[in-house]
Amino acid sequence: xxxxxxxxxxxxxxxxxxxxxxxxxxxxxxxxxxxxxxxxxxxxxxxxxxxxxxxxxxxxxxxxxxxxxxxxxxxxxxxxxxxxxxxxxxxxxxxxxxxxxxxxxxxxxxxxxxxxxxxxxxxxxxxxxxxxxxxxxxxxxxxxxxxxxxxxxxxxxxxxxxxxxxxxxxxxxxxxxxxxxxxxxxxxxxxxxxxxxxxxxxxxxxxxxxxxxxxxxxxxxxxxxxxxxxxxxxxxxxxxxxxxxxxxxxxxxxxxxxxxxxxxxxxxxxxxxxxxxxxxxxxxxxxxxxxxxxxxxxxxxxxxxxxxxxxxxxxxx
Amino acid sequence: xxxxxxxxxxxxxxxxxxxxxxxxxxxxxxxxxxxxxxxxxxxxxxxxxxxxxxxxxxxxxxxxxxxxxxxxxxxxxxxxxxxxxxxxxxxxxxxxxxxxxxxxxxxxxxxxxxxxxxxxxxxxxxxxxxxxxxxxxxxxxxxxxxxxxxxxxxxxxxxxxxxxxxxxxxxxxxxxxxxxxxxxxxxxxxxxxxxxxxxxxxxxxxxxxxxxxxxxxxxxxxxxxxxxxxxxxxxxxxxxxxxxxxxxxxxx
Lengths: 317, 252
Ligand SMILES: [Fe+2]
Ligand SMILES: [Fe+2]
What we know:
CATH superfamily of chain B: Ferritin, core subunit, four-helix bundle
Structural class of chain A: mainly alpha
Helix content of chain A: 55-70%
Helix content of chain B: 55-70%
Bound molecules: fe (ii) ion
Strand order of the largest sheet of chain A: 1-2
Low-confidence stretches of chain B: none
Largest sheet of chain B: none
Structural class of chain B: mainly alpha
CATH topology of chain B: Ferritin
Number of strands of chain A: 2
Number of strands of chain B: 0
CATH class of chain B: Mainly Alpha
Number of helices of chain A: 13
Distance between the termini of chain B: 35 Å
Strand content of chain A: under 5%
Oligomer: heterodimer
Number of domains of chain B: 1
Shape of chain B: globular
Shape of chain A: globular
CATH architecture of chain B: Up-down Bundle
């Protein structure tokens, strides 16, 4: 008897969820949802939140060396935005029944990932420009698409975040174009940053559609609306033109416009490098996580103090 | 010293305080004990970078030499800086930055409150903006000083150590020199003696409320007013000025 009830509950729940899916209605935190859907979202949203936070490190590396007061202000404000995105996404993920502390723990044990791009170092001031222009530029393409994702809190977070990301992209491009109008040394720095960040930015969209293991579920659940290759093509098309305008060379000798496809064709992506870096062997993997762990453990006494104080206040009240 | 020269020095002093503090605060980016405080500390850094920009720009406009705010921020050497020593001190931990900013933000709150009445209209306008920021910084850091002082044994110990270490750098905030005297006569500058009274009153109430004690030792450091700094300033400048110095012809 009980078993039959369970099955009944299971199937009503499934059908409510399926109906919403069919009608393109957002799934909200209180709605029933398949366990796989919840797990997939926790994985994706916490990875997204961690990326915002870990991404503060390479840019933070240049804050104290920002070459003008204006540059310092723009960079500070940008990193603050990313921190805010992290906070916002952590709370959106918390609606799925996982706490920020648990997500942090998963980041530290390696169970949760963050965007691979932040395993590369920010080596000269133009890298700050390249990160804004290329990395945020690639993130926007992805996030604009995620504005229509099926989970309500995630989709709303994306709407809010996208507005700020397009600022970041423009400001990054401004740094690059300023440097390309500058001295020989500045132009060399800009091209150097371009050479190092171009391919990792293309990798941000993930493996080719034929290879992507999660594509099936993510599409069925309408978490993902456009494929990796479609999004990558969008990014390449808009970025190649921008590079051209300021005289930067895209480091891909096979890059050419394909009239028939209406897109640029690009050379082969080095997936070996991609998997090597994802596997932990990038230039900064160890550094990024070690930094996050150290800051987290150095700050433990502060969080304990805040908690102790709050408890005392409650006792008084 | 003409009034114009005094005004230049006065604005550089205020601007340098904002500039060097904002540098130290910006160092907390991705280093705070929680994301909320990462935001709060870099927000203070942002406010103060903006304030430095306004004050140094104004200073440049009255110097007669036409320096930009960036020229002044990035192209001077250590002895030309006029910030208080306290702003140079490296933050050992979160208690240190909170106590330090509580001391300085309280000072700035009363200073800019007074400067809103300055007969110099530009200074009064900068003060009107700064006082709002300083009020928030003062409230935020005071809350933390109380939380840390009255939190755990460890946080109390760290906060007390910060109070002890920073106290000898607070007297300099209120040092009055010829620049102050000349400008006070003209109604341009604030009366630091009066500000010290208000500041002491606030601090004397906040520290015991945080279950902390004020040191009895009255020794006070000095030097910022005449450009004699701590060893730390040189390192701040070598990092901050790196690109401007290494590529003097570049525009950023
Ligand atoms: Fe972001
Ligand atoms: Fe961004």
